[in-house]
């Protein structure tokens, strides 16, 4: 049963610390997405990769957030330094894009981040 | 103004009731639309796609009105297990074909 995996599932850290979240997309998928979900804003797209190349990171605060795909099986989202307002659930999703047609995005279980 | 807007609810309905959710989108270039379901403290999962002609999947019916930029989801004979948050989603197809814009969700609570 193929699924997206994310680690850690929960993270509590202090303000100013670096946080790294990891995602393993479904094997064979060529698109990876990072979302942040809060009660107030809902699901917000932070970054989007296609064939490991970043296509859109306009939703990501550039001064402290960075997203990478070192290889096809790993995507990372890093926050440095973290702030209390970064507290949220961070979801990774993957999908198989063919041209401009939509293909379902499959979400991982999320990383619940609390910054004190 | 958010690109996809939904009534946050909650909608509290008795088991067996019919309930309808509405959603509006602002990007007229959006081509594809979907409903995702999210259970409490879980990840979103695709419930169904929405087509211009309307589509049905068991007790669920989705409809799209492009002229009014309006999407709906109808749930008939609601079950306790339908309790969840329902996310309206648009695919603006700007540059990346799979980029989705999510509404903040409508919470449904089905009660005995």
Describe this structure in words.
The complex is a heterodimer of chains A (116) and B (112). Chain A has no helices and eleven strands. Chain A has strands spanning 5-7, 10-13, 19-24, 31-38, 42-50, 53-56, 65-71, 74-79, 88-95, 106-107, 111-115. In chain A, the strands form two sheets. In chain A, strands 2, 4, 5, 6, 9, 10 and 11 form a seven-stranded mixed β-sheet that branches. In chain A, strands 1-3-8-7 form a four-stranded antiparallel β-sheet, with no helix packed on it. Chain A is globular. The N and C termini of chain A lie far apart (36 Å). With 112 residues, chain B is mostly beta strands. Chain B is 0% helix and 53% strand. Chain B has no helices and eleven strands. Chain B has strands at 4-6, 11-14, 19-25, 32-38, 44-50, 55-57, 60-65, 70-75, 84-91, 101-102, 106-111. The A-B interface holds A 31, 33, 35, 41-43, 45, 48, 50, 55-56, 91, 95, 97, 99-105, 107-110 and B 31-32, 34, 42-46, 49, 87, 91, 93, 95-105.
């Amino acid at each position: 049963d193929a699924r997206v995996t994310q680690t850690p599932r929960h993270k509590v850290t202090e303000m100013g610390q670096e946080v790294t979240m990891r995602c393993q997309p479904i094997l064979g998928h060529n698109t990876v997405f990072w979302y942040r979900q809060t009660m107030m804003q809902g699901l917000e797209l932070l970054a989007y990769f296609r064939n490991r190349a970043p296509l859109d990171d306009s939703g990501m605060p550039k001064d402290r957030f960075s997203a990478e795909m070192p290889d096809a099986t790993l995507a990372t989202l890093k926050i440095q330094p973290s702030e209390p307002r970064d507290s949220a659930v961070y979801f990774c999703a993957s999908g198989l894009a063919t041209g401009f047609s939509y293909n379902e995005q499959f979400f991982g279980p999320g990383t619940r981040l609390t910054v004190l | 103004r958010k690109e996809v807007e939904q009534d946050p609810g909650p909608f509290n309905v008795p088991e067996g009731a019919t309930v309808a959710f509405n959603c509006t989108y602002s990007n007229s270039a959006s081509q594809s639309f979907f409903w995702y379901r999210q259970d409490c403290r879980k990840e979103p999962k695709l419930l169904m796609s929405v087509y211009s002609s309307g589509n049905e999947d068991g007790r669920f019916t989705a409809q799209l009105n492009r002229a009014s930029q309006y999407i709906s989801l109808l749930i008939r004979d609601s079950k306790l297990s339908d309790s969840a948050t329902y996310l309206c989603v648009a695919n603006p197809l700007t540059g990346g074909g799979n980029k989705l814009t999510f509404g903040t969700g409508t919470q449904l609570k089905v009660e005995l």
